[in-house]
Amino acid sequence: MTATLQGKRVAFLATDGVEEVEYVQPRKAVEQAGAAAELVSIKTGKITSFEHLDQSTAYEVDVTVADADPERYDALVLPGGVANPDFLRADPDAVRFVRSFFDAGKPVGVICHGPWTLVEADVVRGRRLTSWPSLRTDLVNAGAEWVDEQVVTDNGLVSSRNPDDLPAFCAKIVEEFAEGRH
Question: Would the pTM count as exceeding 0.85?
Answer without folding.
Answer: yes
